[in-house]
Amino acid sequence: MHTTSSLLTELDALPVRWEVGGTLAAPLEAVAALLLAVAEGRVGDDNLLVLARAAAARQGAMTVVAGPGAGAYRAELAGAVEPVEIQVDQARSMMAVQSWYAGVHAATACPAGTLVTHRVHRVLPDHPGFADGIAEIGLRARMSRDLQQVLEVIADRLGCRQSTLPTRAGSSEGEIP
């Protein structure tokens, strides 16, 4: 029997290094439908939204292809960069992404509507997709900016309010090792 390891299960077992979040005044189902939308084709606001602002996606050089198993995908990039591994769990409203970092986007119901979080569990500085400039920006600052952009797209599509929550670090380091 062949078993494929689950990226989400693997990341669930690791501590959270950094976490950012924000709320949308909209039902969980509506937010999750936009946040977790992944299909074969070019990456954009309607397909793999969490990576739509990546440089390769903005240049039209990032494409999603189906991976092995339900909810498994790869985002392939032009050039020598390795593909990004993606796993979507619609039932849990979660999406794992692994490239030079491994993290999880999740949507959960909250009193204000829906809480969207982005947690990073590990960073791989030796990965070919790791950019030296990320250390200058700081991963938490980049996470906050990227999540804010995702929330803005969803809020615009759903016509709802949004608010960003403070960044929380799971470790005392706060920066890339």
Description:
The chain has helices at 7-12, 28-35, 55-58, 133-137, 139-158; strands at residues 18-24, 41-42, 62-66, 72-77, 84-89, 94-98, 101-110, 113-123, 162-164, 168-169. With 177 residues, it is α+β, with helices and mostly antiparallel strands. Strands 1, 2, 3, 4, 5, 6, 7, 8, 9 and 10 form a 10-stranded antiparallel beta sheet that branches. The radius of gyration is 15 Å and the shape is globular.
Question: Globular, elongated, flat, extended or rod-shaped: what is the shape?
Answer: globular
Give the C-alpha Rg. Answer: 15 Å
Helix content: 10-25%
In round numbers, the mean pLDDT is 82
How large is the share of residues in beta strands? 25-35%
Discrete helix count: 5
Secondary-structure element pattern, one letter each: HEHEHEEEEEEHHEE
Number of strands: 10
Index terms:
single chain, 177 residues, alpha+beta, 10-stranded antiparallel sheet, 5 helices, 32% strand
Report a brief summary of the structure.
It contains five helices and ten strands, in the order H-E-H-E-H-E-E-E-E-E-E-H-H-E-E. It has 177 residues and is α+β, with helices and mostly antiparallel strands. The chain is globular.
